[in-house]
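Page 47, continued from p. 46.
Same chain as before, 78 aa.
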Amino acid sequence: MARLLTVIRGPDDTGFVHNVEQKRFAVDLRGRTCSCKQFQLNLLPCSHALALILELGINVLEYMLEKYTYACWSSTYR
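Result:
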């Protein structure tokens, strides 16, 4: 992913992510938004949000709903 997306850090937990076509996506991790709208629609970090999360060294699980975690899934199927 690092080769396909370029991250430009902004203040706090925000930034811009450019893809190979040079399209720019604005990501706000605190607001859980991305200008591609996938972060808001899926309630999971999109590829742009993931690129910023990895760049900032943050644990991705902080941005996932509990129902999508392994712990929740494994307790469902016990």
